[in-house]
Amino acid sequence: MRILTINPGATSTKIGYVEEEEIVYQETIAHSVEKLQVFDHVQDQLELRLQAVLDQVHEWGLNLKLLDGIGARGGLLPPVQSGAYEINQAMLDYLMYRPRVEHASNLGALLAEKIRAVAGKKTRAFVYDPVTVDEFPPVARISGLKGMERESIGHALNMRAVAREVAENQQRTYEDVTYIVAHLGGGNSISLHHQGRMVDLISDDEGPFSTERTGELPVKQVIAWCYDHSQKEMMTHYRKQGGVLSYLGTNDAREVEKRIAIGDEEASLVYEAMAYQISKGIGSLAPIVAGKVEGIIMTGGLAYSDVLMAAVEKQVAFIAPVYRVPGERELMALAKGVARVLRGEELSHQLTC
Ligand SMILES: Nc1ncnc2c1ncn2[C@@H]1O[C@H](COP(=O)(O)OP(=O)(O)O)[C@@H](O)[C@H]1O
Ligand SMILES: CCCC(=O)OP(=O)(O)O
After folding, report:
1. Most buried in the list 31, 34, 212, 310, measured by CB within 10 Å?
2. pLDDT at residue 33 in the model
């Protein structure tokens, strides 16, 4: 199987080429802030990113017509099941004209379809484990105010992939383990995986602050701030200039650790608070399964940090053994998911909205 993977992030597009489950090429194409800031909407970046992907594929010497499949990160679709969704017109229209939230991942399917058109009809294109995978049971949807539902939006692709990996390392299957998975990076998501489903998740709205996002905030103060700031300003504080960045002026955890090492007390306090909130977030999911958690998995860029991971592990190890899977497994998760569908081992879904 020859699979191309496409994973657009805020300032980069990661692409990979996988043959028979081996990564042959991978590249993170950086898009400069200057080039991106001229666009009002994420969707407007499509042609720029497409050209960058095509240039890279050309540099690799890939013949697109030989591709069996393309796997792209799924964007802000309506709530969907886990697994593969074949890219169709309904999905493209939704992501282009009425995504739930503007986010770089919305470009995944749009880019994949453009490349599929070059590759030809026999190449099939999918998104896999979109950020809106929603497997909440009814009880988890109740927010506390009628008319406002809790939402399942987060790093489903990586969290499900690492849960599968840890389960397999223990000669278990994803379908029969109960894990809490914390994806910790520019954005955070913490999710509970039980009997093969992601049954609860806290992320931007309810989770810990991250290196640049606020996470959950005191609601009364948020309401007051809304009277003094525009919606755009509020969204910027919440998703781009919150968290560690708002306190310390950097979103780089390595820089924070350097400051701590030379005695910066504010950096120490903020880092301690991040570990405190991450631990609280992990702990908040354990009662859902009456504490019968079999493992806690820490992943994302922050899982590289020995200091932060030690601080969190100290607080949560009483719940279950802690495993670290630093970085992300998104490239292989996309490639393997698409290959399973193409081999007929897994069914794909169709978006109909
Ligand atoms: N070795 C490391 N030690 C501490 N922090 C790290 C390390 N490597 C990466 N990070 C931090 O991980 C964060 C980025 O996480 P990542 O998951 O790559 O984010 P993104 O959401 O942008 O994909 C940054 O704050 C970075 O400083
Ligand atoms: C939109 C939910 C997933 C998310 O926040 O992804 P990033 O951290 O890559 O922005």
Report:
1. 212
2. 84
- The residue whose CA has the least distance to atom 22 of ligand 1 is 186
The 3-state DSSP class for residue 11 equals coil
Task: Provide the pLDDT for residue 100.
Answer: 86
Q: How far apart are CA 29 and CA 36, in angstroms?
A: 13
Residue nearest to atom 3 of ligand 2 (CA): 154
pLDDT confidence of residue 71: 98
The DSSP symbol for 80 reads B
Domains of the chain: 2-134+330-342 (3.30.420.40), 156-326 (3.30.420.40)
Q: Are 90 and 351 in contact (CB under 8 A)?
A: yes
Tokens in use for 123? 């190449």
Q: Is 17 helix (H, G, I), strand (E, B) or coil?
A: strand
Contacts of 91 (CB under 8 A, 6+ apart): 77, 85, 109, 127, 351
Write a three-state SS string for 130-181.
CCCECCCCHHHHEEEECCEECCCCCCHHHHHHHHHHHHHHCCCCHHHCEEEE
Amino acid at the residue 8: P
- Spans in the chain with pLDDT lower than 70: none
- Tokens 């397999």 correspond to what residue? 168
- The ipTM is 0.97
Q: Which atom of ligand 1 is nearest to the CA of 187?
A: 21
Q: Using an 8 Å Cβ cutoff, are 65 and 120 in contact? A: yes
Residue type for 220, please? Answer: K
User: Does the C-beta of 153 come closer than 6 Å to ligand 2?
Assistant: yes
- Counting DSSP H helices and E strands in the chain, the numbers are 13, 13
- Report the separation in Å between the CA atom of 209 and the middle of ligand 1, taken as the mean of its atom positions: 14
**Separation of 15 CA from ligand 2 center, angstroms?**
17
Contact between 12 and 31 under an 8 Å Cβ cutoff? The reply is yes
Ligand of minimum distance to the alpha carbon of 14: 1
Cβ proximity of 230 and 170 under 8 Å: no
